[in-house]
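Project outcomes to date are best conveyed with an example. Our students and postdoctoral researchers have been running inverse folding experiments weekly, and each run begins with a structure described purely in tokens. The record below, which covers 229 residues, was selected by the lab manager from last quarter's runs and is presented without edits.
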């Protein structure tokens, strides 16, 4: 039985045993909570600056919650356990390490093969992650398998009549697949194919636009809602 069911945000906060990321500005507080031998991850947007927490945090929390519900039974994607309120999420804890913090010897070839298969499953459920270029969102578990986390920037497949939404989903799904080459460059450059090396030397219009838009949105929201934090 899940010991966290029906617990309030205040009760969950009191069970924190480790901080993964200190909240502030536009960043939620992320911590590990523990009860009755079970662990979970609490993502708490109340720690953001007040205007950001009031206006944008509920939208971000809802978007990630929708994505995790679509991926509820996908292995090595954390499950959504509850939404204590409109600005917080309680997520399954999957023990794993960010790729850039792994100091053990890893057989990277099967890891990246499994990562591609995991991405195919995620895309088949109608979710594009959209932020896999950040190496902190792809983790390695104790068995050497990939774990994908942090779906706050995810894009969902549009309905059949929503042609712009479908196009965006396909574009960001392609960006997810392209991000594998960037991850390889960080941890196993010897595995890069010729096509992946060519991909890394150019920046297509989608990536340029996404980077420009992402920077612009972050800068505007930080100035408007966080005092620049």
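After processing, the design step wrote out the following sequence:
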């Amino acid at each position: 039985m899940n010991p966290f069911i029906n617990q309030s945000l205040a009760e969950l906060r009191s069970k924190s045993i480790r901080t993964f990321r200190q909240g502030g500005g536009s960043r939620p507080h992320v911590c590990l909570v523990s009860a009755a031998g079970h662990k979970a991850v609490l993502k708490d947007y109340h720690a953001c600056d007040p205007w950001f927490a009031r206006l944008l945090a509920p939208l971000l929390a809802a978007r990630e919650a929708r994505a995790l519900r679509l991926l509820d039974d996908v292995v090595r994607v954390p499950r959504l356990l509850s939404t204590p309120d409109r600005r917080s999420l309680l997520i399954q804890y999957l023990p794993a390490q960010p790729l850039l913090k792994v100091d053990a010897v890893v057989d990277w070839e099967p890891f990246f093969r499994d990562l591609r298969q995991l991405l195919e499953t995620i895309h088949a459920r109608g979710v594009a992650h959209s932020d896999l270029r950040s190496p902190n969102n792809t983790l390695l578990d104790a068995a050497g398998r990939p774990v994908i986390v942090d779906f706050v920037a995810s894009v969902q497949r549009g309905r059949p009549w929503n042609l712009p939404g479908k196009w965006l989903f396909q574009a960001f799904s392609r960006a997810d697949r392209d991000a594998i080459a960037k991850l390889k460059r960080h941890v196993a450059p010897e595995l890069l194919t010729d096509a992946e090396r060519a991909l890394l030397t150019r920046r297509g219009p989608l990536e340029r636009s996404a980077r420009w838009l992402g920077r612009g949105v972050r800068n505007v929201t930080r100035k408007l809602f966080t005092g620049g934090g």
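Helices lie at 9-14, 50-55, 57-70, 108-124, 163-187, 194-200, 205-225. The longest helix spans residues 163-187. The training component of this project remains on track.
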